[in-house]
Write a structure and sequence with these properties.
- The chain has eleven helices and 22 strands.
- The protein is α/β, with parallel strands linked by helices and about 425 residues long.
- The strands form seven sheets. Strands 4-3-5-6-7 form a five-stranded parallel beta sheet, with helices on both faces.
- Helix 11 links the parallel strand 20 and strand 21.
- The N and C termini lie far apart (about 45 Å).
Length: about 425
Amino acid sequence: MNDSQHLNREQIHALQSKQLKALLEEIIPANRFYSSKLEQSHLSPGDLTTLDEFKKRMPFTFKKQLEDDQLASPPYGTNLTYLLSRYTRYNQTSGSRGTPLRWLDTPESWNWMCNNWRRVYQAADVQAEDRIYFAFSFGPFLGFWTAYEAATHLGCLCIPGGGLSSVARLKAIRDNQVTVLCCTPTYAVHLAEVALSEGIDLQESCVNKIMVAGEPGGSVPATRSLIQRLWNGARVFDHHGMTEVGPVSYECPDRAGLLHIIESSYIAEVVDSGSGKPAPKGHIGELVLTTLGRTGSPLLRYRTGDLVNPSTSFPCSCGSYEIALEGGIIGRADDMMIIRGVNIHPCAVESVVRSHKEIAEYRIERQEEKTLAQLVIRVELSAHCQDENALVKELEDNLRAAFNLRIPVQVVPPGGLPRSEMKSRRWDSH
C-alpha cells in the first residue's frame, strides 16, 4: 500500500515497520556503508525490529559522513546496495553547502520517487488535462526531474523550459496555454517582473497553479501572496525534497503553507539540533528522514538540517493523519543567526520584507560592528515604488517591531541583486 494519507497513526506505524523490516533485509549486508555503521554500533537488523528501537538505537547519518565516504571510495562511495550495472540514474547535489554528493538510482528507486511526486500532484488536484511548464534547466541535481516524469505518468502535457531566456519561457507559457507552472518561488516572482518589463500581460495567462520548491518561500504567507497577486490569482502549492532523499512532502489541500510528509515513503523524526534528542512537542527542531523505498541508495535517520515545526493535531482538516509541518521548512539549522541575543531565521525576515510589494529583490548580510554582529538588508525596488525614503523607514520600523533590533536597509540600483531560476542565496552569514 502506497497511500498513507487516510491511515490512522497506528496503521501508518504498522506500514512503516513492515517496510523498514524489508529495507533492512535487502540492504544488509549488501550495502557496505550501512553494514559498517551497524557493525560499529554493535547492532544487527534483528536489534531494530520496531520503530521505537530503530529510533533509539540506529545512529544518525550525517551529510559529512556521506561526503567522506565518497572521498574515500570515489566516485560514488559505498552507500550502494547493488552492483553498478543495476543503476541507471545519476544526480548530484548543488554543492552550495560543501562538496557535491553524487547519487545513483536504480529504476525501482527512481519509480518510487516518481510515485511520491504523484502524491504531490494529486494533493494539488493536477489532472491529465493540465499542461505543465517546467521553468527550470535540467542539470545533474535532482530538481524537477522526478516531477517531470511523474507528470507524464499522469498523462499531462509536459513542456521543458531548459536553456531558454525568461522572455522565451513566458512566451512558451502563453502560446501553449500552460495551466501549471513548476519553478522556485524566486523565479516565479522574477518571471512576473520580466513579463511586466516586456509588456506580457499575465492577466491573459491560463496558469491557475504554481508549484514551487527549492526554497522556503512557498510557505511564507507574504511571498505566497506576492506570487499569487503577480500571477492573476494562481494558487501556489509548496513542496519540499532533497537530492539525497527525494520528494518528501506535499501541501495540504485545505491549509496553505502546511506540508504533509509522505509517511508511506519516509520515517520522519524531529530532533533538537544540538542534542539529537526528540524535540519537545510544539517546538521547532531538525527534520530526520529514513527513506523506505530508495533501496538502491538508502538513507537511515538522515539529519537533513531542515528546521521544522511539526503539528501535533491529528487528523488534519483534510482528513490526513500524516505528520504536518506548520509553515513548511522554516530554515536551515546552519542558517540561523544569533544577532545580539536574538535568534533569526531567514523565513522570518522574508515574511517581513515580502509584505512590502514595492520590493523586487533583497539580500541579507551579516556584518561585524565594533565586535558586535548586525544584519544589513539590501533591497532592490520595483518600478511601482514612489517614495524610496518612506519605504526604507517603514521596512526598518517593521523589522524593529518583529525582532526588537535595528536592522539598516540599503537600496541598490535596479538589477543590482542577482536573480536565479535555482535556489536563491539571499542569506550571507560571512
